[in-house]
Design goal:
Radius of gyration: 25 Å
Number of strands: 0
Number of helices: 7
Helix content: 55-70%
Strand content: under 5%
Mean pLDDT: 86
Shape: elongated
């Protein structure tokens, strides 16, 4: 067999796998290609495509199953949509308060970072975290320093 015949055989195998995927998919081949190639325009579409992506992932019988190519393409469309969404800005004070609440940390527990009165002012938005405090909080919570810098 020569290289051209190998390429034709490989292309035939891909076409066969694509056909089998379309047959397994509950929708039509047109739907499958739309889900994998068209941009997402709403949060409702994200949920719909995530459902299809999960369904396709469940169809996969091995790590190299062509079904996963479609599932990954849908994941790419979801990621593209999410990248264009504006994420709300969360202040350092809010992040610190959430961390403290989730870990049951009291202001006095942060005495090695700053006095309790300073921590209180930070939490109430009356004071910004300085670099020394950001480093102390970073060490205390085991998070990157930039988590505590606006």
């Amino acid at each position: 067999m020569n290289a051209q015949q190998d390429d034709i055989l490989a292309l035939g195998q891909v076409a066969s796998a694509l056909s089998a995927t379309a047959m397994k998919f509950a929708g039509s081949a047109d739907e499958l290609f739309r889900y994998t190639s068209m941009p997402i325009e709403s949060e409702g579409e994200v949920l719909e495509r995530a459902e299809v992506m999960d369904y396709l992932t469940d169809l996969a019988t091995h790590d190299n199953d062509i079904v996963l190519v479609f599932a990954n393409s849908i994941a790419d469309r979801i990621e593209e949509f999410e990248k264009q969404m504006d994420m709300p800005k969360v202040s350092v004070a809010e992040r610190l308060r959430l961390l403290m609440d989730s870990k049951a940390v009291k202001q006095k527990d942060l005495k090695n970072v700053a006095p309790q009165s300073v921590i209180s002012e930070i939490l109430n938005g009356k004071r910004n975290v300085n670099l020394k405090q950001a480093k102390g909080l970073s060490t205390f919570f085991n998070l990157p320093v930039d988590y505590f810098v606006d």
